[in-house]
Amino acid sequence: MAKPANNLRDAVEKTVEATLGSAERSRSAAQGALDDLVESVEDLRKGAEQRLSRGRRSVAEAIEGRRPATSDDIKELKAELRALGRRLDKIEERLPAKRTRAAPASKRAS
Length: 110
Known about the structure:
The chain is mainly alpha-helical. It has a domain of 59 residues. It is built from 3 helices and no strands. The longest helix is centred in the first third of the chain and has 65 residues. It is rod-shaped, with a radius of gyration of 44 Å. The mean pLDDT is 84.
């Protein structure tokens, strides 16, 4: 009688081993699929971040070019204009005095 019990035990062990092997293969396949999914999601995330960054820069550039001048901007421009005026005055002081020119020949003939 011990023989049928041994046969039953062997059959159960083989079934458990086969099930465990199948489960291990399934687990391995599922892990591989999950790894692929994680990699794809990471690629999508990186691409989305890059597009968002480019979009932010584009918007900032568009706004910067169209924003009204601030009072600080105007003060800075006035200071630059005064500096340019002083430089121009110094350049003009170094130029020879203007000579009076004779009227062009066409006007003299009239």
